[in-house]
Design goal:
Blueprint (H helix, E strand, L loop, with lengths): L1 E4 L3 E6 L4 E7 L33 E4 L2 E4 L12 E6 L2 E7 L2 H4 L6 E10 L2 E10 L5 E3 L1 E2 L3 E3 L11 E13 L13 E11 L10 E4 L5 E6 L2 E8 L5 E5 L6 E8 L18 E3 L4 E10 L1
Antiparallel strand pairs: 1-2, 2-3, 4-5, 6-7, 7-8, 8-9, 9-21, 10-20, 11-19, 12-19, 13-14, 13-16, 15-18, 16-17, 17-21, 18-19
Amino acid sequence: MITIENEFLTVRINPKGAEITSIHSKDSQLEYMWNGDPAVWAKHSPVLFPIVGTLKNNEYHYDGRKYTLPRHGFAREKMFVVADQKKDECVFVLSADEASRANFPFDFRLRMKYSLLDDSLSVTYEVLNTGSGPLYFAIGAHPAFKLPLVTGTAYEDYSLKFESPETAPRWPITKEGLIDSEPLPLLQDTTELPLSKDLFSNDAIVLKSLRSSTVKLQSSKTPHGLEFSFPGFPYLGLWALKGGDFLCIEPWCGIADPTGTDQSLEHKEGINKLAPHEEFVRTWTVRFF
């Protein structure tokens, strides 16, 4: 386990999946991350790469061949190399190998940098095309924040506050894990989404093309919460599991297959394309209070 810290926060990261397992506030003594109870959901903050969500039949087509990938890809189960470590920053690297090329026929280098600045944690994804042809990929975050955050409060005491008024439907996820063809009403000229576990009774909330790039998890019953910023991520997922005292706030550069997909990787909604030696960089940041 790798630990980074400053005067405000202590963060622990598992090299397997380069996954955050703990974010502890030195001031309030609050733990902000879900505990990863294996009886409910054993993850804490998996990275989603090289796909986000589910492929139809777990398959995609590229260059005349059919390949298989599990939901959210393989990076979350891989051991990353610790490439650099300072007291308040750490860099993890995952590179293509023979095993990855079997079902993802591309050369890549994924660097994940965790940095602390005062009461904030920044997570930067750097994807480099190390091959001689194009690289197609998606990437996203899946951090699970403890909720309720403070003893004496309930899940329903919290809400998400968007930085701008939003009119946005949710895109339902089918039982096969695909994005349905018709959205359902959710946000109507509002900055606030009251939270309840019933919101996730039919899987995650999937939002597209929000005006906001910052959301705040807050409650009138406690001064503590967090502010999550995700500029440059066109999709946002929100998710909790029955029995799980957490909320996942998931910025994505990529999305699950729609029900009408032709399964071509090049045609996939939200797919990112890099030319040889080209690099893709995105950062999400959380401020804890």
